[in-house]
Specification:
Elements: E1 5-10, H1 23-32, E2 37-42, E3 49-51, E4 54-57, H2 59-64, E5 71-75, H3 82-89, E6 95-100, H4 108-111, H5 122-148, E7 152-156, H6 159-168, H7 173-178, E8 180-182, H8 189-192, E9 205-210, H9 220-229, E10 235-238, H10 243-246, E11 253-256, H11 265-269, E12 272-277, H12 286-294, E13 298-301, H13 304-310, E14 316-319, H14 351-363
Parallel strand pairs: 1-2, 1-5, 2-4, 5-6, 6-7, 7-8, 9-10, 9-12, 10-11, 12-13, 13-14
Antiparallel strand pairs: 3-4
Organism: Rossellomorea aquimaris
InterPro entries: Glyco_trans_1
GO molecular function: glycosyltransferase activity
């Protein structure tokens, strides 16, 4: 039996020069290729290339290709490239699957926390509001047209994401319910194949945070408040940005401006007692899900999406964002040596289900 031919649409894609571009798409494709013929169209690429066994095309490369595809999968569809492509080429595909990750279907000014003062721009906010109205309307029109053609399916990365998709996209609730799945992003295998073991001989600090600095949704200011209210503990923040060019860094906090490869994160975590990973907004929060899966004690925000993802994990403690500045006498030792952690973000609960649903969609 011949394999199903799948084309993946992605705004960007990893290469030897940039290994981290939309890596969550690539990690899926490495598993997909065991079951399907997988090709990727990367809109940012100007050339065709191969990366870890995945064939990647530019738009021009696709247009010169004569390969026939059965299914199109669009990750985080945008109106600049994805929508234009789908209107032009939708007739070439039996079915189109949209993987909805977050920002692409949300009016950002209504959801994202206000920028830090040093990063605010009133004019950009106005432009963003206008653009998002156009974005939502354009995507709504596209999805409804594809519903009429019986060609569309949605994968949402969380129930929260589906709920807020329906609050913003003007379409039929019944049609979305009948043509969608909720499938979480999988944890990287490095967090599944290994388990957290605190290495006292290599101890670096009590708490580790891996966070971009300039986006308020990642809560660097909350980490600072937590550190200030726990002066007897030490904190390391791994991330890049300008936040501490404008704010004082506490004496018990060290900033390490570097990007860590995913495969190297588990061994780094072993040198710390607890992960501190607050958030103000997420459609899943893959990194904190990976840390929890790894078995490390972890503190995150007590907001609905974090509860949806992590409520079953006994090594996770939830704190309201308004209480990060309170010394709660938290003892990370209470969360150590926990066995039988949930397999919620393992492949058999995530990407394997995607593969099965793709096959069902093809045969429908």
């Amino acid at each position: 039996m011949s394999l199903i031919n799948i084309l993946i649409l992605s705004e960007d894609y990893p290469s030897s020069n940039n290994k981290y571009a939309m890596s969550y798409v690539h990690s899926r494709n490495l598993i997909y290729k065991k079951h399907f013929n997988v090709s990727v169209l990367s809109f940012k690429s100007k050339v065709n290339y191969s990366y870890e066994g995945i064939n990647v095309m530019s738009l021009n490369g696709f247009e010169r290709s004569k390969k026939n595809y059965n299914i199109l999968i669009s990750h985080a569809p945008n109106i600049k490239n994805h929508v234009k492509f789908i209107y032009k080429y939708s007739k070439l595909f039996r079915k189109i699957i949209f993987v909805i990750h977050g920002h692409e279907v949300l009016p950002l000014n209504n959801y994202y926390p206000r920028n830090y003062k040093y990063n605010r721009s009133y004019s950009k906010k106005i432009i963003r509001t206008i653009y998002d109205k156009y974005k939502i309307r354009t995507l709504s029109n596209l999805f409804n047209k594809l519903f009429e053609q019986n060609k569309v399916k949605f994968f949402f990365v969380s129930s929260w994401m589906k709920e807020h998709f329906l609050k913003n996209i003007e379409t039929s609730l019944d049609k979305v319910d009948n043509n969608s799945e909720i499938i979480f992003n999988a944890a990287n295998e490095a967090f599944i194949n290994n388990k957290y073991e605190f290495d006292e001989d290599s101890y670096l600090a009590d708490y580790i945070s891996i966070r971009p600095l300039d986006q308020p949704k990642y809560g660097i200011d909350l980490i600072v408040k937590f550190a200030e209210s726990h002066p007897d503990n030490t904190f390391h923040i791994y991330g890049e940005g300008s936040y501490f060019d404008y704010h004082t860094i506490p004496n018990n906090v060290k900033l390490i401006k570097k990007f860590i490869e995913q495969k190297d994160i588990p061994s780094l975590l072993n040198k710390y007692k607890c992960a501190l990973m607050p958030t103000r907004l997420d459609s899943q929060g893959v990194m904190v899900c990976e840390i929890a899966t790894y078995g490390m004690p972890c503190i995150t925000s007590d907001i609905p999406i974090c509860r949806e993802m992590l409520n079953e994990f006994p090594n996770v403690k939830f704190i309201r964002n308004s209480e990060f500045g309170i010394n709660n006498n938290f003892n990370e030792l209470e969360l150590k040596n926990i066995k039988n952690l949930p397999n919620k973000f393992h492949n058999n609960k995530t990407v394997d289900i995607e593969i099965e649903k793709i096959k069902i969609t093809y045969n429908a």
